[in-house]
Amino acid sequence: MKDDQYPPLPPMTVGPAGKCPRCGQGSIFKSFLKLKDRCDVCGLDLTFADAADGPAFFVMLAASVPVLGIVLWLVLGVGLSYWLTALIAVPLVIVFAILPLRPVKGWLVASQYFHKAQEGKLDNQE
Ligand SMILES: [Zn+2]
């Protein structure tokens, strides 16, 4: 297999940077979250990659607690009005929930390649 010509790259080194999980050189993204069909450098077919809702799930999990904490502190602790709190909270949501999506998706795609994860198949089916 052609994969054997490349040393295995840890998903945490190539994934968050959006680099190809096989060669570590080419970019896997053609837009903010859309994946290319194949790597420009080594030609790895990226259609195997399906992170689905994975990035959104992990980012929501990690972002909801600090943002909710800050909003509750602003309303209950500082006593800011709801309007001012909303003006502060919306940019916080953008920073905490949208920006990490791309590195998390890159990490999940690289992990999928690294661990050769794919859809489960039953032995007794053709
Ligand atoms: Zn590549």
From TrEMBL:
Protein name listed in UniProt: DUF983 domain-containing protein
Transmembrane ranges?
A: 56-76, 82-101
Q: Which InterPro entries match?
A: DUF983
Originating species: Oricola thermophila
Question: Which keywords annotate this record?
Answer: Membrane, Transmembrane, Transmembrane helix
